[in-house]
Amino acid sequence: MLLLDTHIWIWSVEGEDRRVNPESQRRILRAESADQVRVSPVSLFEVTNLSQAGRLHFNRSIEQWIEGALHPSGIRLADLTAEIAIDAGHIPKTGLGDPMDRLLVATARRLDATFVTADRAILTYARGGHVRVHDASR
Fold it and tell me: Under DSSP, is residue 96 helix (H, G, I), strand (E, B) or coil?
């Protein structure tokens, strides 16, 4: 099972292959074909928030983009449970300063998924054995 970080999800859906290394692209495609790719509801919040702030632009409404990014693809929505929220609350701010990152990491742990990211802070945090990651950066 793979959990995609928000930026990886956007880049994958938008076909920005140059931003994701080839091995990551292959892993994501294999996992999609096996229905083993998830995104967190946190990513839906982040995409919507970035769109509203004018930092992301799509050629359709954000609702249509999200619908298209989830349903026809092999990407499914993960649950955001009380256990995930509590686990995220236990991750120290010194380890991960962004609360959304803490929720994403806790989701990956709860799913026992590999978290696909290019986020340096998360990759650094993962080196301590806190979450299984795959570095998708170039």
Answer: coil
User: Could you give all domains of the chain from N- to C-terminal order, each with its CATH number?
Assistant: 2-135 (3.40.50.1010)
- Bridge-based pairing state of the strands 133-135 and 75-77: unpaired
CA angle at residue 101 from 126 to 107, to 5 degrees? 80
The overall pTM is greater than 0.85:
yes
Residues 105, 125: contact at Cβ < 8 Å? yes
Amino acid at 71: H
What are the start-end ranges of the H helices in the chain?
Answer: 6-13, 22-33, 41-52, 62-70, 82-90, 99-111, 120-126
Tens digits of per-residue pLDDT, 51-95? Answer: 999 999 999 999 999 999 998 778 999 999 999 999 999 999 999
Q: How far is CA 115 from the centre of its chain?
A: 7
Contacts of residue 130, Cβ cutoff 8 Å, sequence gap at least 6: 91, 95, 105, 109
Q: Rounded distance, CA 109 to CA 117, Å?
A: 14
Q: What distance in Å separates the CA atoms of residue 89 and residue 59, rounded to the nearest whole number?
A: 36
